[in-house]
């Protein structure tokens, strides 16, 4: 009877040890994946910041005014060309 209990305890110990090794291995894999994803997130945040800066640069009023004048030939109307309509 004691021999049976010892065998059961040894088997339970081996199964538990295998479970611990499996859990640690999975933990390591998930940690590596987490590290990769955090790095990708950081790179995306850097790119997003650059894009926001670029968008702010392209949307500056002076730049839009310059493009309107040079490429489209637009200009502010003269005072004599302004008509006020009242209802």
UniProtKB/TrEMBL annotation:
<keyword id="KW-0472">Membrane</keyword>
<comment type="function">
    <text>Essential cell division protein. May link together the upstream cell division proteins, which are predominantly cytoplasmic, with the downstream cell division proteins, which are predominantly periplasmic.</text>
</comment>
<dbReference type="Pfam" id="PF04999">
    <property type="entry name" value="FtsL"/>
</dbReference>
<protein>
    <recommendedName>
        <fullName>Cell division protein FtsL</fullName>
    </recommendedName>
</protein>
<keyword id="KW-0132">Cell division</keyword>
<keyword id="KW-1133">Transmembrane helix</keyword>
<keyword id="KW-0997">Cell inner membrane</keyword>
<keyword id="KW-1003">Cell membrane</keyword>
<keyword id="KW-0131">Cell cycle</keyword>
<dbReference type="InterPro" id="IPR011922">
    <property type="entry name" value="Cell_div_FtsL"/>
</dbReference>
<keyword id="KW-0812">Transmembrane</keyword>
<comment type="subunit">
    <text>Part of a complex composed of FtsB, FtsL and FtsQ.</text>
</comment>
<dbReference type="GO" id="GO:0051301">
    <property type="term" value="P:cell division"/>
</dbReference>
<comment type="similarity">
    <text>Belongs to the FtsL family.</text>
</comment>
């Amino acid at each position: 009877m004691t021999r049976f209990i010892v065998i059961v305890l040894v088997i339970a110990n081996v199964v538990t040890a295998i479970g611990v090794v499996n859990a640690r291995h999975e933990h390591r894999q998930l940690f590596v994946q987490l590290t990769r994803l955090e790095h990708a997130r950081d790179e995306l945040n850097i790119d997003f910041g650059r894009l926001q800066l670029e968008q702010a640069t392209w949307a500056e009023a002076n730049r839009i005014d310059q493009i309107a004048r040079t490429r489209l030939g637009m200009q502010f109307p003269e005072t004599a060309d302004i008509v006020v309509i009242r209802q």
